[in-house]
Amino acid sequence: MNFNKILVPVAVIVLTIGAWRQFGWPGIAMAAGGVVMWILVHVTRLMHILRKAADRPIGSVPSAVMLHARLKKGMTLMHVIAMTRALGALQTPKDEQPEVFSWSDNSHSSVTCTFVGGRLQAWSLQRPEEGPLPPT
Length: 136
Fold this sequence. Notes:
There is one protein chain. By secondary structure, the chain is an alpha+beta fold. Helices cover about 50% and strands about 15% of the residues. It contains four helices and four strands; from the N terminus they run H-H-H-H-E-E-E-E. It has a four-stranded antiparallel sheet with strand order 1-2-3-4. A hairpin with an 8-residue loop joins strand 1 and strand 2 (about 100-105).
């Protein structure tokens, strides 16, 4: 279970009640201002990541092997997009769980990532098969 969905609203409520008890209406205004600033910081980060990703082709990454090495279970989709600086190519129908995205590089290696609820659950690296060496 994701405790952030519970802890963040509870923390905001506790902060607001504490601000009310300590400072009255000015305290509530101060707490609301802090919450709004926190939300704006996260929205600004999200927009910055998506602006960078918009400049690259979908599903493109400089090195699929390096991406595969840097992935960790539980990472958010937004964190993976920030690492790759590109949106992943969606492999499953839209809005269906689990979501599967893939990124590939110029050597035709690709990483396929499975996200459940926006969190990375599994990933795999596919490399092109090596053909026979040309005669010398």
